[in-house]
Design brief:
- This protein is of the alpha/beta class and about 140 residues long.
- Strand 4, helix 2 and strand 5 form a beta-alpha-beta unit.
- The model has no long low-confidence stretch (mean pLDDT about 85).
Amino acid sequence: MTASYDYHLGSDYHKSYSHLVVQDSSGKTLRSGRVKNDRQSLGGFLKRYRETSHAVVEATRNWMMMYDWLDDICDDVVLAHPLKVKAIADAKIKTDKIYATVLAHLLGADLVPKAWAPTHSSTPSANPCDRSKQRSGPQPSIRTC
């Protein structure tokens, strides 16, 4: 970890809600709760923790939306590899709160097994003409008569 963060945010993401845990740099839980999955609710929950914070979200179904929202709020977002996190955080009793707490602890200790997350510059353009420039190999030629 190259940067020092005051707050570590763990997120257990579901279809309509997420459970979030905010911890300070010593690992003490400052806030924990269930939040509706929308930008406004997430921003309200994390309002006090925007400065020098980073977050972790597991790469599960529809993770991109939560990743983007957290990226707008936090200084850094880590995408956790779901199979490797389960191997580390496997527990007999698993609740949303426990899982979000484990993710926050792993993030604070820089032990999150990372998955690749595309940056804004690596995502495909909405313009189909731009995509044609991304092809590799020989380009087809068109003959006109």
